Amino acid sequence: MKTLLLLLIGAIPILQAEEKRALLIVVGEPGNPLYQDEFKRQAKAWQDLAAKAKMDTNTVGLGNEPADGDRPDLEKAITALPKAGGDLWLVWIGHGTFDGRSAKFNLRGPDIEATSIAELLKPFQRRLIVLNLFSASGPFIEPLAGKNRVIVSANRGGERNYSRLGEKLADSLVSADADLDLDGSLSLLEAVLHASAATKAFYDDAQRVVSEHAVIEDNGDGRATGTDKFKGLRAEGPAPDGALAREIHFLGDSADPLSPEARDERTKLEAEIEALRQRKKALKEDDYYAELETLMRRMAKLYGK
């Protein structure tokens, strides 16, 4: 039975040649020369990675500040992006604010609200990967979450202190140590978990209280899962996130060969498989593997196997 399941899993193709991907880097108001240098370093790291990945790349927030600030250029840049196609990555580097009601990303000039960003992203049909690498980014999760989207925020809830996740994530994307399952391919989930661990290590080494806790949302329910809830590449809880982020790779192919309808069915199957895994201890071994085989056959059928 176990051998048959391994054959079924191996029959499911995960990666295929993909459509052209794109990256938009948004650099916010530094507010301090030290932050300015760091934000530029992060932006350069993402630009270099994008060049290796042969992605279309645009950056907002560097260079001379426009007379009316960066918000008009940012809105134009997002609006001009193709609404369909390969993955669209949006990397936000800087500071944020949250007053208990309104969450904002700090730009040079007028800031932009999380709700305004959500409106700008509404027309997009392509898969979105939104990396909120800034302070007070927890409240951005709910308005930006949706189907076929991965939202990562450096902070949860009302955490407002400067975030160091952004300092670590670009480095994690090229780190061999971040390949947690040792399969020779680095997923977005692995990179985020590695960067989160590196961020915690910074606070531990400095003997400081950890003031930021990264979260990830990729099942569309608007409720994020903390990176500290993951054991390996699986999260605990009734509706865990992480399945979509496991399929996405910045360097290398990450296209999804399935139709939107098939993706919906796959999401349901993944939820059933996870629910079955949670019940494993309560089932007889043969019953568990019989149910798992049925689910894996349905999954393989989605890929024409």
Automatic annotation (TrEMBL):
Per UniProt, which keywords does this protein have?
Answer: Coiled coil
Keyword Coiled coil included in the entry's annotation = yes
Superkingdom: Bacteria
Q: Which residues form a coiled coil?
A: 259-286
Protein name as annotated: Caspase domain-containing protein
Q: Give the organism, scientific name.
A: Luteolibacter soli
